[in-house]
Design a protein that fits this description.
CATH class of the largest domain: Alpha Beta
Number of strands: 7
Low-confidence stretches: 293-300
Order of helices and strands: HHHHHHHHEHEEEEHEE
Mean pLDDT: 79
Radius of gyration: 32 Å
Strand order of the largest sheet: 1-2-3-7-6
Number of helices: 10
CATH superfamily of the largest domain: Histidine kinase-like ATPase, C-terminal domain
CATH architecture of the largest domain: 2-Layer Sandwich
Length: about 325
């Protein structure tokens, strides 16, 4: 726009001549290519942030209406400035053009700065949540290791006691001790669900929680490898299971159910978890919101899972029909 006005003043011509009779000139072509190069550079350099910016621009009707109005205003102003040069452009048109372009640019830059600030704050929050989840899952691993060490320590004393019973021919005491420990083994016995430690360890721990809360649990597992690192999968795995358990335990005792499907299909991993829920969670856009009392410090686990899944080229969907909530993850 500035180039057209300057050229119009220099040639003492109007917009009709500049657009038709005057043709495009070399400086105009160079300027357009330079602008295109900057746009391409920024697009590929900041692809994630631009994607986030576009989602922010279309996240609700108010923001969309604001930018429709802004775009309409910009096009209207450009139309006015162009038609000021129907016969020829004046020197004052440069000042008006600079003022208008500066105002519009400032508006968009301020919004972009605000959006990038929100993006960086969200990134920090997600990183903190990832650390918290890893610490929590690490505590589970440490707890399981301690339980194993304790069992080993207790086992030594059990064998010593049985040896004494046999030596003193106290077979009744020996049988009582064996029966007691068999019951403990049955209760604490770990399942080998897949043979993959990142899955089995967390699933064993969560299964114990489900039994504690009286949640009926069924599985359809057929998996032999993970498409993401074990650390990231534990974040996904722990979060979706925690959410399912939390929702199911709020239901009546006879209605607490969780169904798990975990399969490798054609080089893809499919994870589906269905659980009963007491009420349908609130929705913002296409995402369900946390039902916890403090939404500022909760609900980031879902954002974490979404980020990990999408960064691995996968998809995640949440659906809620009747009293059933379902999470579908495909990576």
């Amino acid at each position: 726009m500035l180039f057209i006005i300057v050229r119009g003043i220099y040639l003492d011509k109007g917009v009709d001549y500049l657009n038709v009779g005057g043709r495009q000139v070399l400086p105009e072509c160079i300027l357009c290519l330079f602008q295109l190069g900057i746009i391409c550079f920024l697009y590929f350099k900041c692809l994630d942030r631009i994607g986030f910016l576009l989602r922010e621009l279309t996240r609700n009707n108010k923001v969309r209406c604001l930018f429709w109005m802004a775009e309409a205003a910009v096009l209207y102003v450009i139309n006015i400035m162009i038609f000021r040069g129907t016969y020829r452009f004046e020197t004052i048109d440069i000042a008006l053009s600079i003022l208008i372009i500066s105002s519009v640019t400032a508006f968009f830059l301020l919004y972009m700065v605000y959006t990038l600030y929100v993006y960086s704050r969200m990134e920090r929050q997600i990183m903190n949540t990832q650390k918290e989840m890893l610490v929590r899952e690490n505590e589970i691993i440490v707890q399981c290791c301690r339980q194993d060490a304790k069992r080993l320590h207790d086992l030594k004393h059990t064998w010593i006691y049985l040896q004494n019973c046999l030596e003193e021919k106290k077979l009744g005491n020996a049988m009582e001790c064996v029966d007691q420990h068999l019951e403990e083994v049955k209760l604490q016995q770990r399942h080998t669900w897949t043979g993959i430690s990142e899955i089995d360890l967390i699933l064993d721990y969560k299964h114990q929680q489900m039994e504690k809360y009286g949640i009926q649990f069924s599985t359809d597992i057929e998996v032999y490898k993970l498409p993401v690192s074990g650390e990231n999968f534990m974040i996904i795995w722990g979060n979706v299971l925690d959410n399912a358990i939390e929702a199911a335990r709020k239901c009546e005792a006879e209605e607490r159910e969780i169904h798990l499907v975990l399969k490798n299909i054609n080089e893809m991993l499919m994870l589906k978890i269905r659980n009963t829920c007491l009420e349908k969670p609130k929705k913002e856009g296409k995402w369900f919101m946390t039902s916890k009392k403090d939404p500022i410090h909760h609900g980031w686990g879902t954002a974490n899972v979404k980020q990990i899944v999408e960064s691995a080229g996968g998809e995640i969907q949440y659906t809620c029909e009747g009293n059933w909530f379902e999470v579908n993850i495909l990576i």
